[in-house]
Description:
- The protein is built from eleven helices and six strands.
- The strands form two sheets. The chain has a three-stranded antiparallel sheet with strand order 2-1-3. A three-stranded antiparallel sheet has the order 5-4-6, with helices on one face.
- 39% of the residues lie in helices and 14% in strands.
- The chain is of the alpha+beta class and 272 residues long.
- It is globular, with a radius of gyration of 23 Å.
- α1 packs across α4 (101-111).
- It has helices at residues 38-47, 63-73, 76-80, 101-111, 118-128, 135-147, 156-164, 169-179, 186-195, 211-218, 222-229, and strands at residues 3-11, 17-24, 52-60, 199-203, 206-208, 267-270.
Amino acid sequence: MKYHYVYRIKNLVNNKEYVGKRSCNCLIIDDKYMGSGVLIKQAIKKYGSDKFSKEILKQFSHAEDAYRYEGEIVSLEYVSRLDTYNLVEGGRGVVGLIHSEKTRKLMSEVKKGKKQSRAHVESRAEAHRGRKNTETTRKLMSESALSRVNTYIFTEEHKAKLSSKKLSTSHRKALIDSCIGRKMSEESRHKSSLSNSVQIYHTPYGEFHSAIVAYKTLKCSKTTIESRCLNPDKIVRFPNQKNASMPDEMKFSKYDVGKTHRKLGWYVEKAT
């Protein structure tokens, strides 16, 4: 029999907390689980498990009810608070979420060297088996995939290796065949036109003739500038107050949620 519940873990040193949903096969009172969030794991490793308390907020007969209750507590406002370890909304998280560089690094460090057990892999597969995404969810996933900016940075050595390699005849033919008959969308033609001309990056803090000048002036990453200016119609879906690598004035707040990058002053256009 499966038991489902929502819990709160509290740091007795600094009073920061973490709320999550849990399903287990043992009695809830015997469950030693202390959360799987990146920041809460880092905190337990830093302070020791004896510096944390666990409170059972509510028990449920069905997992979906537990997820729903978790979502009511772990809202956008809750996640944006500075006294919580939660990074994303509750209720199965946020579809299409792109983690910050700091979050990805923390997640990588936590998982480094660890292998998932067979039981863990099977339980994850079972949780997703038979699930069907709604039309709205599929649309959000599609928009997120289309709006992502390539953030790979190659070293000079890597570039040299790539340039020294030659494509096989079959590979070149496959690439040519894949492009035959394809038509670029208006958005793709616009982006291609911009990439071949002098551009002006508009931001709420001024205009710049390149993304490099913009990010050096504003003390943020080039990825931030490009992801906002090159995707002006993208809607802000969550605040990023916990991104330590970004200046506070550039972070999206809860008041920016629901607005497009363009409406907030981020876009790019050809220089006249």
